[in-house]
Amino acid sequence: MKWFNYLCLVTFFCACQSKAFKTEKEYKIVSSESFVDFGEHMVTPKTFSPTIANYKGKNAHIFIDQNLQIVISDLDSKELIEIIPLQRDDGPKMLHSHPNKAIPLQKKHFLITSLSFFYIVDQKGDVIKKINLEKIVEDQFSRNQEDHFFITARSSYCKIKENELIFSLSRNLPMSGPVPAKAYPYFPLFIQLKINPTNWQIEWKLLDVSFPEEFVKSTSLSYWHDETPKYLIEGKRLIYFFRFSSKLFFHDLETGKNSSLELNIEDAPYTSSPASSPEEGNKILKYAFLDTYIDTINKIIYRIHQSRNFQDLMGSERILNSYSLEGKPLVSHSLGTIKEHLYSGMFGYKDQYYLTPFEPSTSEEHLEFFQFKLVEKNQHLSFEAN
């Protein structure tokens, strides 16, 4: 009988222990490098505004270099696909303003973006259509507003489907001085456009997404040019965020529903205060939140934030953070200071976050990638109180 009681006690203890211990995963961020060799081609690999898109059936990295060339590389094989020269001048088949982004349309054309014009170019790099953005925005979207807007495609490229894209609107604020007297707190942020490839006509639609009310403190204060969000498309959701806040915002393109997610840093949310002038704003921005990427394969959110060094801006540290889709912090990884590692391009592809250095690590010019990925480190047991 005593043995039976002892066996029951041991069984009960083991059962309790199996419930009290829970296996948790630990993670780490690992890095790797790869590059694209340009061969005999003369390319300057400063990728300030890269496009990641399907091009002729391949997953491509596309950018316009300083020699006015569209440079297209295969992200899977890391091989150069094609180089298309552009020309800037007053000629009818030339760009009239400096290009910053190349977006493939169909199989034989590109949409070239600039600050004030869109250009449709063919595979020879010849302009076949020029679109004055300022005039379109003024005519269609500024009539009932108290301020002037311009469209910007410098930071993001969001393709919903073939020939259908999203671009952001920016308020035309001064570079210095006080907030304009007619400033208003709420304003539209995004335009959805559809391009007809038969005649290259564009249909425009203003999305029901405004500057978040929670960030508005006074009409005499502004976040200035940080008001313009960065953004990406994930499925049918438009995801956007601001340089001054750790929050992500979501807009469902089908239902119109809006939501948000806090991605804490140092165990807390962060939002900088608005300011009465750009000079004042630069003095209070402690953290700057940079490009975000959602790895839908492993259900991980990657985002870089910059911890500002007010005494030495080039000494500001950049940190790659990872989160669950619910916003739970996973692992942070230091990318060093700006002076140690200067990058000209940031993007996500498949299950990795990519950074492109401003200058190649060797004297030979090539397109270099630093790749980062969250992996499981090991498993350990942690005690949970009953």
What would your notes on this structure say?
The chain is mostly beta strands. Helix content is 9%, strand content 45%. It has three helices and 25 strands. It has helices at 2-20, 133-141, 278-284, and strands at residues 21-36, 51-55, 58-64, 69-74, 79-85, 101-105, 109-113, 117-122, 127-132, 149-152, 158-161, 164-171, 190-195, 202-206, 230-234, 237-241, 247-252, 258-262, 287-295, 300-307, 317-324, 329-337, 343-349, 352-357, 367-383. The strands form six sheets. Strands 10, 11, 12, 13 and 14 form a five-stranded antiparallel β-sheet that branches. A four-stranded antiparallel β-sheet has the order 1-25-24-23. Strands 2-3-4-5 form a four-stranded antiparallel β-sheet, with no helix packed on it.
Measured as a percent range, the helix fraction is under 10%
Question: What is the C-alpha radius of gyration, as a whole number of Å?
Answer: 24 Å
Largest beta sheet, briefly? 5 strands, antiparallel
SSE pattern? HEEEEEEEEEHEEEEEEEEEHEEEEEEE
Low-confidence stretches: 379-386
The number of distinct helices, counting runs of at least 4 residues, comes to 3
